[in-house]
Amino acid sequence: MKVVVDFDLCESNAVCMGIAPEVFEVRDDDYLYILDETPPESLRPKLEEAVRSCPKAAISLRET
Fold first, then answer.
1. Are 32 and 10 spatial neighbours (Cβ–Cβ below 8 Å)?
2. Beta 32-34 vs 59-62: how paired, if at all?
3. How far apart are the C-alpha atoms of 45 and 13, rounded to whole Å?
4. What is the greatest pairwise CA distance in the chain?
5. Minimal CA–CA distance to 24: which of 45, 41, 40, 3?
6. Is the pTM of this model over 0.70?
7. Which residues of 11-34 are buried (b: 16+ CB within 10 A; e: fewer)?
């Protein structure tokens, strides 16, 4: 799977980082960074929660 973020929608509110800090990070510049675009399958439950929890629906998972 691949993590995809629509940065035009993203407000960098860090909800995703709170759920999956292994994959998402909001840095001091207030921008969201994807630390691992192709995370292991073991993180799927956290990533699905991050997708559901994103207030702007900016995160999606694409099957590779």
1. yes
2. unpaired
3. 20
4. 31
5. 3
6. yes
7. ebeebbbebbeebbebeeeeebeb
At 16, give phi and psi (nearest 5°).
-60, -40
Per the CB < 8 A criterion, the answer to whether 59 and 20 are in contact is no
Query: Other C-beta atoms within 10 Å of 8: how many?
Result: 7
DSSP H/E element including 26:
strand 24-26
Q: Quick check: 22 and 43 in contact, CB under 8 A? A: yes
The pair of structure tokens assigned to 30 is 């207030």
What letter would DSSP give residue 43?
A: G
Q: CB within 8 A of 42, min separation 6: which ones?
A: none
In tens digits, the chain (64 residues) has pLDDT values of 999 999 999 999 999 999 999 999 999 999 999 999 999 999 999 999 999 999 999 999 999 8
Six-digit token string for 12: 């960098």
